[in-house]
Write a structure and sequence with these properties.
binds zinc ion; mainly alpha; 6 helices
Length: 150
Amino acid sequence: MGRFCFHAKAKPMTEHPTHCAGCGVKLPPPSPKANRGRKWCSDQCRKKTLYSPPCIDCGTPTNGTTPSKHKGRCKACGQRHVAEVARAKSEPIDQAVLELRRQGYLNWAIEDKLGLPYNAAASRLCRMRRRGVEVPPSPYWFPAAAQEER
Ligand SMILES: [Zn+2]
Ligand SMILES: [Zn+2]
């Protein structure tokens, strides 16, 4: 009786994935004993990929590279989304600050009125100016206007 040969029994190696189907890292060459190459770099990667739905914004697999705060989005879309949310939150405050400045309020008075932290009005107005928004100068430099306000 001839020696039992695993290789004869094994299915022919039709495909040898060279890169992880999940994260795309290069895989080591399949071992000669394996009847097929590995498809995943790790079991963790396989699970993450199979159970990570495509990014809800751009459709690329989230691949488990997505921090939980980017739920449902790939890293790039997640970061963009976070920035958009922050802007959407920030914009009304910017407008309120700008409106009070137009009315001639000093920075500290604006912060006081809107419950903003120290220096927030100044930095918001400065950012708006940099974006090209026309921001009236602080009445601090025009004492007459500042006194009128009190
Ligand atoms: Zn992988
Ligand atoms: Zn995406």
